[in-house]
Amino acid sequence: MSGKGQFYVFQERVRAPFLTAVTPQKINNKGEPKFAATVLLTPGSADEKGIKSALLAVAKEAFPGRDLKTLKFPVESGDSMADRSAAKSKDGSFFRGHTVFKASSNEENPPVLSVLDGKNIRELLGAQREAEGRKLFYNGCYVLLAVYVSPYKSGSEGGVGEYSGVKAYLNQVLWVADGPRIGGASSSEIFKGYAGAVTAEDPYANSGDAPF
Questions:
Q1: How many CA atoms lie less than 13 Å away from 68 in the CB half-sphere?
Q2: How many domains does the chain have?
Q3: How many angstroms separate the CA atoms of 62 and 66, rounded?
Q4: Confidence bin at 182 (pLDDT 50/70/90)
Q5: Does residue 202 belong to any structural domain of this protein?
């Protein structure tokens, strides 16, 4: 397929209510285990605009002439997610007022894990990745991400099915600070829609380059 991906590195720390950075997990106990990150973006922030612009650029190049509303993107309204959680009698209040961004990678491509140690960045290698990583990379901590966004086509001939869109691959995760731990739903449950969802909302409403 035509179209290239783009790297995007977050500039401001974001809270990760669901994070599977050390050991991959299956989504809904199905398929291959994955590393995954779900983070909360502030609407109108530089990173929200930046990642949406990257997704938009990749989508336009890969799907020329396609109605982008028919594609899947790894961003979603936090209010919508909070409402769905409430309907299931689950607490998703932390989503409200945010844009939710999701990225993942397969078991063969674990993300690089690093820690902000004072003013220095220290990569977790070998046994450190497991021992120290489990203590720091938990649901609710603050991180910086480096991701690779790339188009994909599947689901029907020519890629015009419901599974076409732009996916974010988790490349690196930098632990920045502790945050209130989040319990309840597992990361595999919340991350089951990791490729994004078809939506009537404009996922680029704050990007300054809305196609709809």
A1: 21
A2: 1
A3: 9
A4: confident
A5: no
Q: What is the mean pLDDT of residues 111-136?
A: 94
Residue 206 lies in a domain: no
Q: Which of 27, 10, 16, 26 is nearest to 193 (CA)?
A: 27
Output the six-digit token pair for 11.
Answer: 């500039």
Q: Where are the beta strands (DSSP E) in the chain?
A: 6-9, 14-27, 30-41, 75-77, 99-106, 112-117, 120-123, 142-152, 165-177
pTM: 0.82
Task: Tell me the per-residue pLDDT of 20-58, one tens digit each, with 9 for 90 and over.
Answer: 999 999 876 778 899 999 999 999 999 999 999 999 999
Q: Is residue 185 part of a domain?
A: yes
Measure the CA–CA gap between 164 and 170, rounded to whole angstroms. Answer: 19
Judge whether 106 and 34 are in contact, CB under 8 Å: yes
> Is residue 119 a part of any domain in this protein?
yes
Residue 100 and residue 193 in contact, taking contact as beta carbons nearer than 8 Å = no
Q: Give the whole-angstrom CA distance, residue 125 versus residue 133.
A: 10
Residue 210 tokens read as 């809305």
Nearest one of 55, 35, 9 to 174, comparing CA atoms: 9
**Structure confidence at residue 58 (pLDDT):** 95
By residue range, what is the domain housing residue 93?
6-190
